[in-house]
Design brief:
alpha/beta; Rossmann fold; GMP Synthetase, Chain A, domain 3; 3 domains; eight-stranded mixed sheet; seven-stranded mixed sheet; 20 helices; binds 5'-O-[(S)-butoxy(hydroxy)phosphoryl]adenosine
């Protein structure tokens, strides 16, 4: 399969698709370019159930602090639930499959009642009100979705912390957001065994904490410690709560949630998304990119702890009234046929996962898809990192029987929803290519030096040159960091534009291929990890003098974490294995398992300029086993390069 190969949309599918041809796509994008506010205003009027209509579409007066749909009033939970009750009361909203195979179907009416009870609990028992921050540290169980929607219903701002983060990482996020409530579970099940979350919360709350109350969903019923006056059982408090809870009337720009993500400093940033613009684009992209039909069943394998879980397990599918599958377990357990068994059993029509998962499923179960009936599948999605052609080919041919569209969706926590992606009924696709900006999104690859659009085959910076409804509204508590992180690097026509942090390139057809991060952020299994964050953790080891962390290609994870460490003692390392273990233990404590290093090497020094700046480019090249071609004569000690090459590559 050559890079140039083009696959046309399945004509049967295109006939029924919401956007069924390139003409239709072009017409939409033309409208957006010619009448940007008209395009978005119409979309918002059509898609959102407004409590009160908005008066303005886009207010850029204070850019990059923008406002969308000013004056509008809505409630995101009502958009996701209440408005479906007339027509979809008995339709499955969530199909939950537990690790052990237990299945639960939650209809829209059930969801309405469960969310309202949850909202009443938060209000009545914990005194949570509009604007309060609530941290959610939960496994993949329906109560996690109830918790999110309950917050949205009463106007509280949720901040989900991925269940794989450590107590220290959880503590930092709780403190930064000044959360007054944590919602967690005793734990859940993984590979048929219980695992625990509550003890991590206990550790995170030791010492001074803004948290007053902890709500614990009892899922695995293992023994946990209960702190009197602070910890309460959801299973007990939820009894007798009213299934009616009036939805708080929210402004378009009232915050909906925070989600912390890595940047290029040691401190994660609280990405803030607001109500109307976020939910509008979540719903529109669900409809366009997955093209979910009324009787379809859709499954996204992400964890709710990441933006993909927010937008494409909970908010997007529910806003459009779809049936969304939620899975507690591990996709390779009991074997690498698990997802295909689930596709067969639940008759899944759209399946959305990450390249790293595709590579693992391919490697561990190349022939597994053949054993199941996957004929219901229509659209296959990928997200999180560039997908490599071999993984793409297997996904396309073996999982999709060469008849499903593959949507390589490019976006990030800050964009709220997809930015560049094929449309399954319109866009001719090329393997491992995110293709074109979605209608309404003005995404361009610019030359950072000139702000001009780059030519064919020239790598430039992936930018979004007009504000869009679901864009990040701020970094929690740090307005300056918001401006500096996203609007500092590229100017077009003298105006700062949003820069994603990614490099990208156009081909001769104007298709966009993402080439990867241009900053010190690495992409581990489709998740962003700041090298500075890992370095800060490693520096907590008493014997570490200096450290530099870089990414290097990894067969399954996409990128692995590679650390160069200079120890304080000049005698070298007494026991390398022990030292590596100690360093990874610290990383697990400070961040979590996801940040554990794939390679640690002990070095006598690091390549630095005379002004003391570490030359990461050189370290990246050495880690990849590449020849050093750049001029190293400006280094303080050029000989260190050969020394490091010898240690790493022998
Ligand atoms: C970064 C965002 C978006 C949800 C998951 C990750 C990379 C994402 C693609 C893709 C190439 C991709 C980018 C981006 N990325 N999707 N289809 N092709 N790269 O969210 O943690 O905010 O990370 O993931 O580098 O900036 P995130």
């Amino acid at each position: 399969m050559s890079e140039k190969q083009i696959f046309q949309p399945n004509p049967e599918f295109a006939k029924e698709a919401r956007i069924g041809s390139m003409e239709a796509y072009n017409a939409l994008q033309k409208r957006a370019l010619e009448d940007y506010e008209g395009f978005w205003g119409d979309a918002a009027r059509e898609k959102i159930d407004w409590i009160e209509p908005f008066s303005g579409v886009l207010d850029e007066a204070n850019a990059p602090f923008v406002k969308w749909f000013d004056g509008g009033k809505l409630n995101v939970a009502a958009q996701c639930i209440d408005r479906h009750l007339d027509t979809r009361k008995n339709k499955a909203a969530i199909i939950f499959e537990g690790d052990r195979g237990d299945v639960q179907t939650i209809t829209y009416l059930d969801l309405y009642k469960n969310v309202n009870r949850f909202a009443n609990l938060l209000k009545e028992d914990f005194g949570v009100t509009k604007g309060d921050r609530v941290v959610i540290y939960m496994p993949m169980i329906p109560e996690a979705a109830y918790a999110m929607l309950a917050c949205a219903r009463i106007g509280a701002i949720h901040s989900i912390v991925f269940g794989g983060f450590s107590a220290e990482a959880l503590k930092d996020r709780i403190e930064d957001a000044e959360a007054k409530v944590v919602i967690t579970a005793d734990g859940a099940f993984r590979k048929k065994k219980p695992y625990m979350l509550k003890p991590v919360v206990d550790a995170a709350l030791e010492g001074d904490t803004p948290v007053e109350k902890v709500l614990v969903v009892e899922r695995n019923e293992e023994e946990v410690t209960w702190k009197a006056g602070r910890d309460y059982s959801y299973n007990e408090l939820i009894q007798g709560k009213s299934a009616v809870c009036e939805a708080e009337v929210m402004d378009s720009e009232d915050p909906l949630f925070l989600l912390y993500t890595s940047g290029s400093t040691g401190k994660p940033k609280g990405v803030q998304h607001n109500s109307a613009g976020y939910i509008l684009w979540a719903q529109m992209t669900m409809e366009w990119v997955f093209d979910v039909k009324e009787n379809d069943t859709y499954w996204c394998t992400a964890d709710i702890g990441w933006i993909t879980g927010h937008t494409y397990i909970v908010y997007g599918p529910l806003a459009m009234g779809a049936t969304t599958v939620m899975f507690e377990g591990v996709i390779t357990y009991p074997d690498a046929g698990r997802p295909w068994a689930m596709v067969e059993n639940h008759r899944i029509n759209q399946f959305y996962t990450a390249p790293t998962a595709i590579r693992v499923l391919h490697k561990m179960g190349e022939d597994e898809p053949k054993k199941y009936d996957l004929s219901t599948l229509k659209v296959l999605g990928t997200v999180g990192e560039p997908i490599d052609p071999p993984a793409w080919k297997w996904y396309y041919e073996e999982v999709g029987s060469s008849k499903c569209a593959i949507v390589d969706t490019y976006w990030q926590t800050e964009t709220g929803g997809h930015i560049v992606s094929p449309l399954p009924g319109a866009t001719p696709i090329k393997p491992a290519c995110a293709t074109l900006p979605l209608p309404g999104i003005i995404a361009e690859i610019l030359d950072p030096a000139t702000g001009e659009k780059v030519g064919v085959d020239e790598t430039g910076y992936m930018c979004i040159t007009r504000p869009w409804p679901s864009q990040i509204r701020g970094v929690w508590g740090d307005a300056e960091r918001y401006v500096k992180s996203y609007f500092g690097d590229v100017k077009k026509d003298g105006k700062a534009v949003y820069f994603t942090g990614d490099g990208a390139v156009y081909d001769a057809d104007g298709y966009i291929t993402i080439t990867g991060r241009t900053d010190d952020v690495i992409n581990v299994s489709g998740h962003r990890m700041g090298t500075a964050e890992v370095e800060a953790a490693i520096k907590k080891h008493a014997n570490v003098a200096e450290v530099a962390v870089v990414g290097r290609p990894h067969e399954l994870k996409g990128e692995g974490i590679f650390a160069y460490i200079v120890l304080k003692s000049d005698e070298g390392v007494a026991d390398e294995v022990e030292e590596v273990k100690a360093i990874n233990t610290i990383i697990k404590q400070e961040i979590g398992n996801i940040a554990v290093c794939d390679d640690i090497i002990f070095a006598p020094g690091l390549p630095k300029t005379r002004s003391g700046k570490i030359m990461r480019r050189i370290l990246r090249a050495i880690a990849k086993g590449e020849k050093i071609t750049q001029d190293i004569s400006t280094l303080e000690d050029p000989s260190i390069v050969a020394t490091l090459e010898k240690i790493v590559n022998g």
